UniProtKB/TrEMBL annotation:
Domain UspA: start-end pairs: 10-145
Pfam annotation, one family: Usp
Protein name: Universal stress protein
Origin species: Streptomyces alboniger
Listed InterPro entries: Rossmann-like_a/b/a_fold, UspA
Length: 170
């Protein structure tokens, strides 16, 4: 992993709760700790029906609900990655209403920032977020791969159904 040394910049990381974003969150925290930088974790959200439909029928209560859901997802990611807030790192959590790529690039707008994004293993093509960040970021970008899932387990997970998680005896 290439380390980007910088004095004042922040380490901005995109967080969705996926394995790849949890790996990115851990790597970003380590980069922030090493460089005495602030870790800025960003979760982007948009109304599930899309911004265009929402603008035709705005509902502030509905928007607050989805913003709160995004904030809870961000908190769960910190709990999953660190058991809370990582020790020894200044941390800022942001919930941004925008598309993920745009949200990340707007937060990581300083040239001395480091933008960290997660990537799934085995992806043949970059995701929309990766393409957007590569084209629009004004700072260094670090892509962190998700931990590999053993092949046999991947096959088993593909065959799992909702009934496999149902409580027995209920």
């Amino acid at each position: 992993m290439t380390r980007i040394e910088s004095g004042e910049g922040r380490v901005v990381v995109g967080v969705t709760g996926s394995l790849a974003s949890l790996a990115a969150l851990r790597a970003a925290a380590e980069e922030a700790r090493r460089g005495c930088r602030t870790l800025v974790a960003v979760t982007a959200w948009a109304p599930p029906e899309g911004e265009a439909v929402y603008l035709r029928h705005p509902d502030a209560e509905w928007a607050r609900h989805w913003c709160a859901e995004a904030g809870a997802r961000l908190d769960r990611a910190f709990d999953a990655a660190f058991g809370g807030t990582p020790h020894g790192v200044r941390t800022e959590r942001r919930v941004v209403r925008d598309r993920p790529g745009r949200a990340l690039c707007s937060v990581a707008a300083r040239p001395d920032d480091l933008l960290v994004v997660g990537a799934r293993h085995g992806r043949r093509h970059a995701t929309r977020v990766h393409r957007y960040v590569a084209a629009h970021a004004h700072c260094a970008v670090l892509t962190v791969p998700a931990p590999p899932v053993p092949r046999g387990l991947r096959r088993a997970l593909r065959r799992v159904t909702a009934e496999d998680f149902a409580l027995v005896g209920h």
